[in-house]
Design a protein that fits this description.
Structural class: alpha/beta
Largest sheet: 9 strands, mixed
Helix content: 25-40%
Length: 332
């Protein structure tokens, strides 16, 4: 196997995040499900965009957040995702490259436009997402840059993208390219909503193509249709070599066939916005994994990155994660 150029290469939904602080009354008024993610059409997206008058805009998307986190740790990252040939698509591309991530997927001309995720952040830090997927879902197998995938130590696949049959095929193609090059394949389940819609397809992908699975407690329970976390973990570890379950303030579990590592959370003074917590957790873990760290060290780096991102508004780190890790005694 040749040496890798990138620590992580990700495939995901290329989305502009539109974040605004909002009271719970706003969620009720707009019929937004608190703490969840709801898919919306373009008309609804335009309506909510108009209501988010004081919003913070940032190039986002779950896997996109992860690879910018990898870059902040001092790692090298690449990204494959679809934007439209419009102003939001140009902003996404410019911001992404400025963050140090390699991104060269050609934009798609015409409608639909670049995707956006409208995120209402309530005073308790919960984020409630209304997502217009637009051009981001139109990724197809021929958009997979095989050379880029082969150059990455680990491929990272974003569950939010796993909807259209063409996107599923693109995932499988990317995983097969990675595996044929001796690379690892990782997947985040992204949201229970995604698992409920595509449970059988996710199970097939995990069992046949995935080396590292990222989930939270509700997602792993849904994937294996269990009420008990222990039972769900047993089913997961039988299908996948490394299984990670994040559990918010409780911390996280990293399970392999032979061991379970209990990772403690890193406390923060105040939880401001949980947007991107899972994404940055994956960044810390995958960065450590690419550098040959133990599972416990990977989990600690993951917790550090997640703690940083929930301490402020927005889904990407405001502090340089490499400097933060060194300050806290980590090897990076």
């Amino acid at each position: 196997m040749t040496s890798s150029t990138y620590d992580v290469v990700a495939v995901g939904n290329a989305i502009i995040d539109v974040l605004q602080s909002a009271p719970d009354a706003f969620l009720a008024e707009e019929n937004i499900a608190k703490g969840g993610m709801t898919l919306i059409d373009e008309a609804r997206a335009d309506h909510l965009t108009a209501r988010f008058a004081d919003a913070v805009l940032a190039a986002g998307g779950s896997a996109a957040n992860t690879v910018t986190g990898v870059a902040s740790f001092g790692g090298k990252a690449g990204y494959i995702g679809k934007v439209a040939d419009d102003a939001l698509g140009a902003r996404f591309t410019a911001e992404f490259r400025a963050a140090g991530v390699s991104f060269s997927t050609p934009p798609r001309p015409g409608k639909p436009g670049t995707a956006r995720c409208l995120i209402a952040v309530t005073p308790d830090g919960q984020r409630s997402m209304s997502t217009y997927l637009g051009a981001s879902t139109l990724l197809e197998p021929n958009d997979i840059d095989a050379d880029l995938v082969r150059a990455g130590e680990t491929l990272f696949l974003e569950g939010y993208l796993f909807d259209r049959d063409e996107a599923k095929a693109a995932f499988v193609r990317a995983a097969e390219v990675a595996r044929s090059a001796g690379r690892k394949v990782s997947l985040t389940l992204s949201d229970k909503f995604c698992v409920d819609r595509h449970r059988d397809s996710f199970r097939h992908l995990v069992a046949g193509h995935v080396d590292i699975l990222f989930s939270n407690e509700s997602e792993i329970l849904s994937l294996y249709e269990q009420d008990d976390l222990g039972a769900a973990l047993e089913a997961a570890r039988a299908a996948c070599p490394v299984v990670i379950v994040t559990r918010s303030e409780v911390g996280s579990l990293i399970a392999t066939k032979d061991e379970t590592v209990d990772v403690k959370p890193i406390p923060v003074a105040k939880v401001v916005d949980t947007t991107g917590a899972g994404d940055l957790y994956a960044a810390g873990f995958l960065f450590g994994y690419a550098r040959g760290r133990s599972l416990a060290e990977c989990g600690a780096l993951a917790s550090l990155a997640a703690a940083e991102v929930i301490s402020h508004m927005g889904p990407r780190p405001e502090q340089n994660l490499r400097a933060l890790a060194l300050k806290n005694g980590f090897r990076v």
